[in-house]
Amino acid sequence: MEFLCQAKIHHFAGLDAERSGQDHYAYGKGMKEIIYSRNAVYETLRAKRREVFRIQIAEGAQEKGRLEDILRIAKERKIPVERVSRPRLDKVHQNHQGVAAEVSDYPYSDVVEILEYARNKNELPFVLILDSLQDPQNFGSLLRTAEVVGVHGVVIPLAHTVEVTSAVVNASSGASEHLRIAKSNLSQAMDALKDSDVWMVGLDQNGEIVSEKTDRHLRGAVGLVVGSEGEGLRELTRKKCDIVLKLPMRGQVESLNAAVAGSVALYLAYLARSNKS
Fold first, then answer.
1. Beta carbons within 8 Å of 242's beta carbon, 6+ residues apart
2. How far apart are the C-alpha atoms of 26 and 32, rounded to whole Å?
3. CA 109 from chain center: how many Å?
4. What domains lie within the chain, and their CATH numbers?
5. Long-range contacts of 27-31 (CB under 8 A, 24+ apart)
6. Whose C-alpha in 30, 64, 98, 172 is 20 to 30 A from the C-alpha of 201?
7. pLDDT tens by residue, 45-90
8. Where is average pLDDT lowest: 159-163, 170-174, 211-215, 222-226?
9. pTM
């Protein structure tokens, strides 16, 4: 098949993938990328939000557990499966776990769809807003926690931020595939959420310490706003927040990284919303 356009030459299981995990390339008329690792591929199949063009399995891999599930789904959906040497998969990523899949580009959502999703579930909106996060591992970790606690959607900026790459899908253990993630002007997105009575709660080292008195801010419709690594919340983002909170700490270390702090705050919001009565 002839390449009609090409953003990056990257034959499936062929040339070296960039360490950043941005394995996107144009093939034909649509964008494709390569997802790797067992949970990432399995959850991508299970979510049914991307087209899966083919799957490659390392020769000699034991077809049990998640790999057995992947092969079963592939057979049911008539997705081509190829057995290839491990060195070929090593060129996709060193942590491929014996499997990779060629899939369509990530299907981003929008704020309207996130609010509609919460409404259809008859739940008050629970949204994670990330202000210019840079590290794929931090992003993936936060997405995994967000999916587990029932967040309805995630909002990231249009630029100067990590996006949903194969590295992020892997770091989230495939949780990204079940989440509605919107790319938006952050200021406008926060205004739209506030217009829908979502309370904007920032998380920053200079905020008010979380306590029983501040617990009320995490109940009801909540937009939890997490800043970038090192920089925290940008000034404009901070001004859009209804309140800024800080996690209490008793040890010698001054702060937690964005993924850990955000995950703790997500669970605090989950518990507060569960006990809102």
1. 194, 199, 200, 201, 217
2. 6
3. 12
4. 24-104 (3.30.1330.30), 111-274 (3.40.1280.10)
5. 27/1, 27/3, 28/1, 28/3, 28/4, 29/4, 30/104, 30/105, 31/7, 31/104, 31/105
6. 172
7. 999 999 999 999 999 988 899 999 999 999 999 999 999 998 899 8
8. 211-215
9. 0.86
